[in-house]
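EI: anyone free to look at a 258-residue chain?
SC: sure, send it
EI:
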Amino acid sequence: MFLIDTHAHLDEQSFEADFEEVIQRAQAASVKGMVTIGITLDSCRRAMALAEKYPTVRSAVGIHPNYVSQAAFEDWGLICEMAKHPRVVAVGETGLDRYWDHAPLELQVEYFERHIALSREIGKPFIVHCREAEPETLEVLNRAAQVGPLNGIMHSFCGSPETAARCVELGMMLSFSGMITYKKNEALRQLAASVPRDRLMVETDCPYLAPTPHRGKRNEPAFVQQTAKVLAEACNLTLPEMAELTTDNAKRIFQWLE
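SC: here you go
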């Protein structure tokens, strides 16, 4: 069995003390691929360093919508250059966040569109963060789709069935995190089961959003197996079947080479 954790933040400080053990536990849980996500220029540099050091790790580079106001003028150009690195498999995470509201929406939209344009330019997918901004996020995606096909991932999806359906129409992948394991989220499990099988992926978003039974603890890539298990049950598949399905999907969109 082979699982890929398609969205992790392995450069976070909470992993510094036991990173080697985190990688070992992931491998023991059949998680043999991880994508670590950059959210600022410094974070992207750390993510790339991890991807260069560890064979099972790849990285994504971008500026998270909550940090676009803090980005220096030269940061974007440097990230564009980093995105061409062979160990970088995606652009982002980007998107819109109206929950924290750390940056003006107009600036978030501008950077969202920059990431999509960079994705097209280098032929790598973009990763979307959407929090309490579904209409605005769809507006940007619909506008981008008029230019050409979209090659993107809705990360840690927890939106409405209507948003999910539109994202599928636009060609997007939907990635599900530990939230689908929470008892109250039966509607999210049903939604995940309705997504076309070739659009499904799994992630941890670690160190956040630990799945049941680890909820409230630091999340880590090994725990993506629990999320995949719950997703498999929702889709009436076995865990090995779901692992193969989501891994094939991740390898396809990330152009993942061993």
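EI: The chain has one domain: 3-254.
SC: 👍
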